[in-house]
Amino acid sequence: MVDVRPFRALTYTPKAGNTADLITQPYDKIDHAQQKAYYALSPYNFCRLILPLEENKYEVARQRVSQWLKDDVLTKEEHPAVFVSRQEFQLDGKQYSRTGIIAALRLYPYSENRVYPHEATYKAPKADRLNMLRNVQKDLEPVFLMYQDHEAQTIRFMDEVTKTEPMTEVTDAFGVKHTVWKVTDGEKIQQLQAIFGPKTMVINDGHHRYESALTYRDEIRANVSWTEDSAFNFYMCYMVPVQEEGLIVLPTHRLLKNYKLTPEVLDGFGCFFEIQEIRPVVETIETFLRSHVGEHAFCVYDGTKACGLTLKHDKSVYDFIEAYVSKETKVFDVVILRDIVFRQVLKTGELSLDDTILYERWTKDALAKVDSGEASIAFIVNSIPAKTVAEIAVQHELLPEKSTDFYPKLVSGLVLMDISIGEKL
Length: 425
Fold this sequence. Notes:
It is built from 13 helices and 21 strands. By secondary structure, it is α+β, with helices and mostly antiparallel strands. It has two domains: 4-249 and 407-418, no CATH class; 252-382, 2-Layer Sandwich (Conserved hypothetical protein from pyrococcus furiosus pfu- 392566-001, domain 2), CATH 3.30.1760. Strands 1, 4, 5, 6, 8, 9, 10, 11 and 12 form a nine-stranded mixed β-sheet that branches. Strands 15-17-16-19-14-18 form a six-stranded antiparallel β-sheet, sandwiched between helices. A hairpin with a 4-residue loop joins strand 16 (297-301) and strand 17 (306-311). The two termini are 17 Å apart.
């Protein structure tokens, strides 16, 4: 059974100022320029906790949480609660909304088949978030999960809650409106717990945070006396039904350093792909991809030219895929890209986040990074539907790192959870 619990949230008080000046994107979406911009917004901006500019960032974050609580900038809610959170946003001219539930979810190792990952992780971000947990003993940002709700039980629960007065409403810098409702009614929470009990969860965003939390939990268990109700056995999670129309997944484009579209590289691509030179502009690249969905197609751009690559329908190519591409997930574009383009043609070897590979959400930003010299070549890809991600995850199949980009991100700073040693749920 999946154990979901209410918790006494930590939230900003009116003393902190305008909520719009406090919230941020998740820590791993904040670059150095955004860090400085967030710092300029407010002395209490949430970036000062999740990603301090100061060198000793973990100790700085620990001291700030403590000081802000003493100064009544942050406060702990009097009653345990679960929260309903909705994002309203536009994408490609269409209006969407996505609604989910924020609650404390018991931490389950993947081997227990309660919570499933869908993509591989990097070591460095996990070490970073583990150090942050050790110091602040707070869940600063939620893990984003999805679950099946074929009978719309949680959807009806959320519909009822969202007819009441919200706790918070704020629009972020990207034009996404975030609304949060608080539920403290014990009977309603028990109803929700019963619905969640038999479900399984798939991680959308926050694999590094979730895995770090498991490590932290085990460290604490080894050193202090604890009970099943100890808060560090849980993690603050944002849980959304797969059936939500607004559960949008964007592609994550890959950018490599130190590669060019040389004649030799193009010859290598030609062994596996039909190659079509296209105009090296965003509109043409995106049009090519839209017209080749489901065909293992990519676009490659090196600053001067762009090519569309479509997997050949040759027996020799299929035989090669059977022999050299990850068996369980070979139907996915990002796996074909990694195992054939990167490993076989470019001979990249193991890629390292930020050192040899970068990731971008928008085509225009990917091309701009190549144009600026930050990367030398970009591979533009199609997205994977959320429903497909959910299906492959429960079969214990892992996609490559950064294969998905669930959009929009849940902003950070609206709700925190205390996992101090003595805290109980």
